[in-house]
């Protein structure tokens, strides 16, 4: 019996080591899987936070730039219309640039000395990483070559595209 006891103890010890080795491998596999899952979840959370920050930054920058861009595109003075139109062309893109390219190479209409757009209210209606839209109300002052200037208000739905950190007007619908 004495000779059997050490053999049984050796088998038990050997089995114990095999279970320990298997357990160690299983624990390592679980640890690797958990680490990968935590890494993926962290990456998604960081990406989501960055995207939210970008959307907030885009919203703020569009709110700041939309009114001045509309003023830049639609204001023109006969005394320096070429420079006004060049600035306007630098602030447009896409469909709007194609549609109004010819208009933005000419002086103000006959009999008009100047048109000045002054943004009154700009409201963001949509914004993401590459595009944004606003509804804007502007005072439009038209000064004829002779006579009295007229004041009007225009409401527009304008679309913008973000290019190199700068918003460009690419769509405009007059609402009223």
Architecture overview:
The protein is rod-shaped and about 120 Å long. With about 180 residues, the protein is an alpha+beta fold. The N and C termini lie far apart (about 105 Å). Strands 1-2-3-4-5 form a five-stranded antiparallel beta sheet.
Brief characterization of the structure:
This protein is an alpha+beta fold and 176 residues long. Helices cover 49% and strands 31% of the residues. 16% of the residues are buried.
Structural class: alpha+beta
Over all CA atoms, what is the radius of gyration? 34 Å
Overall pLDDT confidence: 85
Q: Regions with pLDDT < 50 over 5+ consecutive residues?
A: none
Largest sheet: 5 strands, antiparallel
What is the helical fraction, as a range of percent?
40-55%
Compute the separation of the termini in Å: 105 Å
For the biggest β-sheet, the strand order reads 1-2-3-4-5
Describe the global form: rod-shaped
Order of helices and strands: HEHHEEEE
Number of strands: 5
The proportion of strand residues reads 25-35%
Q: Tally the helices: what do you get?
A: 3
């Amino acid at each position: 019996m004495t000779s059997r006891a050490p053999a049984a103890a050796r088998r038990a010890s050997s089995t114990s080591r095999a279970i320990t080795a298997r357990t160690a491998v299983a624990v390592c596999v679980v640890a690797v899987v958990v680490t990968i899952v935590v890494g993926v979840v962290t990456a998604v959370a960081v990406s989501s936070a960055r995207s939210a920050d970008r959307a907030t930054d885009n919203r703020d920058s569009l709110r700041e730039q939309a009114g001045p861009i509309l003023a830049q595109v639609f204001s023109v003075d006969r005394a320096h219309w070429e420079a006004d139109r060049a600035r306007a062309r630098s602030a447009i893109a896409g469909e709007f640039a194609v549609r109004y390219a010819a208009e933005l190479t000419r002086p103000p209409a006959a009999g008009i000395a100047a048109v000045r757009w002054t943004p009154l209210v700009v409201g963001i209606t949509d914004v993401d990483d590459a595009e944004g839209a606003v509804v804007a109300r502007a005072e439009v002052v038209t000064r004829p070559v002779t006579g009295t200037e007229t004041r009007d208000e225009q409401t527009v739905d304008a679309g913008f595209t973000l290019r190199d950190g700068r918003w460009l007007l690419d769509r405009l619908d007059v609402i009223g």
